[in-house]
Sequence to fold (372 residues):
Amino acid sequence: MSTAPALVDAEDLRTRVDALLTEHVEALLPELVRSGAGAAPLAEGLSHMLGGGKRLRAAFCWWSWRAHGGDPDSPEAEVVLRVGAALELFQAAALFHDDVMDDSDTRRGQPAAHRRFAARHAEQGWSGDPDRFGESAAILLGDLALVASEREFARAVADLAADRRAAAHAVFERMRTEVTVGQYLDLLAEVLPWGEDPAADEQRAREVIVAKAARYSVEHPLLLGAVLAGAGEDALAATAAYGLPLGEAFQLRDDLLGVFGDPATTGKPAGDDLREGKRTVLVARAMARARAAGDAGLAGALHTGLGDRTLDDEACRSLAARIEASGAVAEVEGLIADLSARGFAALARAELTEDGRAMLVALGHAAVDRRA
Fold:
């Protein structure tokens, strides 16, 4: 099976999207500096975040467009590439904000933006609280990425026919609203009572998965590609039928990697989701297993360990091992398999070009079977 990087490199997609992102940041820098010389680090921060990433969202958009009949040699190809760049800019905005809300130390193996700005504050000996400055700067950086995303998207679809432009805007706007709501639901889940009703905990976790990740990571990029190709209502319904379950499987895999992933490939410390107190399907299943088995030790370990930022690597590994021993990991792997099977079956039924379908299948596997 091809790896995600190799798939995203097909038809020079990564190179072309990266060139658009570089062009956008380079054009933005003079505008920022005109507002004040001290604003230049904002462009640096945006460029730093955009320098990483798998470009999977841009790839899902592009290959959905191709699978629905898009011609890579047509002028419309530039539209799809720019929409892909807009998706990557929106992803950057979400990550800036997410890292602040989660108080994450790292992103892609490097200090998170709020940590870098806090370090700058401390190094310069500025007045006030470095951490507060770092968080505020990162929030503004996320806002700037949102503005950049909107600009790139508007530029991309400006010359489309009115009906197609409106349809693309509707998907893009729905995506942004749902992600924002999903972020709030995630935040809310972390402060509500937890562990007494694992079924309700899991239901909340699944709601967060759909709103915050599944649709925005897979379904909406696929729908944007289909809309840009002029797909009708039946084709869009078919796209959603495989996009949503694959998106859910994608996030469930991410949740497993947040506990068991190799830091060398994930770019985040092992067990970070445990320290951050993420109320995932994985921990809900582990708690359900603990309560069903009368395992007060595991239930207590989950209650005390989840969200404890003082957990060292050994303590995280110990808690992760107990979660795995409970059978929760196998259950989540089974859920990933079931969702993937449903998604790939719907993808097989959809009316698509065969080359495009093959690439979407490969991208789907790269998303749900990944180890980073």
Remarks:
- The chain has a mean pLDDT of 95.
- Residues 213 and 251 are 6 Å apart (CA to CA).
- The beta strands are 106-107, 110-111.
- Residues 198-228 form the longest helix (31 residues).
